[in-house]
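BUG-555 | component: ligand-complex export | severity: low

The export step for siroheme jobs runs without errors, but we want the raw record kept on the ticket for reference. Input record follows.
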Amino acid sequence: MSSKQNLSAVEHIKVQSKGLRGTLQESLTDEITGSVREADHALIKFHGMYEQDDRDLRAERADKKLDKLYSFMVRLRIPGGLISPQQWVSIHHIAGEYATGVIKITTRQTVQLHGILKGDIKPTLQSFSKVALDSIAACGDVNRNVACASHPHQSPIHAQIHAYADKISQLLLPKTRAFYEIWLDEEQLADYSEEDPLYQERYLPRKFKIGIAIPPNNEVDVLTNDLGLIAIIEDNEHKGFNIAVGGGLSATHGNASTYPRLASVIGFTDTEEKTLKAVYEVLTIQRDYGNRADRKLARLKYTLDKMGVDAFKNELENRCGFALEAPKEVLFTARQDEYGWVKDFRGLWHYTLFIENGRVTDEDTYPLKTALLEIAELGKCNFRFTSNQNLILSDITPDNKKTVQKLLSKYGITEKQDTFSALRRNSIACVALPTCPLALAEAQRYLPSLISKIEPLLEKYQLGNDDIIIRMTGCPNGCGRPYAAEIGLVGTSLGHYNLHIGGDREGTRLNVKYKEQLAEDQILEELDALFAFYQQEKSPNENFGDFCYHQVLVP
Ligand code: SRM
Ligand code: SF4
């Protein structure tokens, strides 16, 4: 446990924050700046927001001696990524009224809106609240949005497993009423005395992420989470969960003590009570043992490696008051979304759309946002976000399928969906520039055009239908999970990327850095050579990632 004297600055801010209130009220009413006070930068994250500025405009504004153009990104808390059509309609209108208009689906099944001015945060959150949406704990040193296998076709008992996302999210919500007071005008408590047995005064040392997978699909990349629950289903009965701890992807260029890590499976729980108890106590261990001095080394993966997996498991069993059973055998076979129309076990239909980098917007020849609004207004389908930044129009009765399809056709959505290559459909890019303050290079604004240049290379080797997973991020933090891709591109500086290869298709093996600091022509050259080698030497059914791992990295 960290001693008091070496606590990081954020630790002091949390303790002094009066239950995450800080001086947010004062910051909001300060009309001199579009920013919030220094300490409130950290606190506002716990309310689901980040202060940002448009980095494209920085130089021009600096030349004119203008302050940065501050705005806020709001991230919603949507456990398991499921919302109603009415909620989508509201998100659509709120995005247009208070934000940039773009609805950004994230890699953790939720939605972000960018470019919200300080004075518009309250109306934004109040509008969300009217349709039962909030951003509590979507960011900050707490449990974040709980991700869960999204497609109802994944199991006849999908709904039963999916319900855990909400249960866990509720269980791990901070107890403070600060969000309701500051943003929704709830009456303020006189003494801020809410007891929070889980988070106490200091909350967690760092962000905490939970994912729930339903094998054989691993769309949620369950092993990249601090805590992964892998549903064990036999004969359509839910038997319990394998519990995996210590996943996390971030690394810092040049800092060897930071590293991506896949979670270690430490046991199995058979009842809901035991599972929720184990989940809760994993957080208390991280709360009590996590590094509070160095935020770069504060995630659970470092706590786990420092304690050792066996010691961690013993501590967990002591805190739970029961022993974990031996983990069950699990096989993951895919991470891809099931695109297009799929009928589930109840006879309901689902249409999965590939949404490039999760950006829902209208383009001249592809009015996706308008089409989705009209579909939502019908009120005939739910909206489910996937961890691949995609969208499923779901739970559609056979009678309503035709109506939904008619609108998809009217706006050319199905037609366009059919044009995306296998590589593109398996791509993810993080936000990066212009809003992300940590970006070293482009990602979502660049990957689409890079893919257009990679596609002809794949065609050249008759690999156009190969479902190779490619992911790009603008820095090594790993928001697009590039270290768990078959081709990972990690930004190092503007126009340059490290190339990682050798991850597997199922998300059970991380890739390895193969080449550093490549510009576009070098990336294309390296991939061209790898594809040629792959085409010539691969065994039947060998995936690109496995081939690279066995033939290129470990010759
Ligand atoms: Fe992330 C920070 C965007 C998923 C690891 N992430 C950020 C910030 C908030 C930048 C910041 O701190 O100011 C980015 C906001 C950009 C913007 O302008 O919107 C950002 N992260 C995203 C999203 C939106 C990427 C996307 O394009 O979808 C994802 C939102 C998920 C969500 O809904 O909650 C997102 N971030 C991830 C993931 C992937 C995942 O969770 O499955 C990771 C790697 C997994 C992990 O956590 O280990 C990830 N984000 C980070 C980190 C590194 C954390 C660490 O352990 O050091 C940071 C930086 C930090 O926290 O200091 C970060
Ligand atoms: Fe920003 Fe880096 Fe995350 Fe991309 S990976 S969104 S550049 S923090």
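Assignee comment: Attached the raw record above. Residues 367 and 411 are 6 Å apart (CA to CA).
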